[in-house]
Amino acid sequence: MALNVLRRTSKFGRLLGFTSPAVKNNMRILSVGQPALSKKEVEVTFIKANGDEIKAKGKVGDSLLDVVVNNNLDLDGFGACEGTLTCSTCHLILSPENYNSLPNKPSEEELDMLDLAYDLCDTSRLGCQIILEDNLDGLKVKVPATVNDARS
Asked: Domain named 2Fe-2S ferredoxin-type: which ranges (predicted)?
């Protein structure tokens, strides 16, 4: 959301370029925030333990946890700590190809949380730590049958 600042037009303001045809009542609204840029969407498929597939879209820059939350996906207990890296409830299993294509490898903190996850394997990651990029369009991830909330 852009922060709007009211500026009085004056001789100094005109020198700085604060005047325009849109100036009204000697005031102008100047936006100093970043413009909302449209981001490309990528599709992700979450495969539940029973084989059901849930397709959802997320924007480049979102985490897989964001995709679950923003699309209100029915994944019990997923993301209990809201991405603060204090639980292992957003544990996902990737194919070896997808795991190796991720730009960032798991941090020590993520590995510590993964040690507490059920059904841990070599290609396990936490969804809150996987950030969507263009090349992840069509990504498929397995959701383990049970979650372990490391906070309890």
From this structure: 42-147
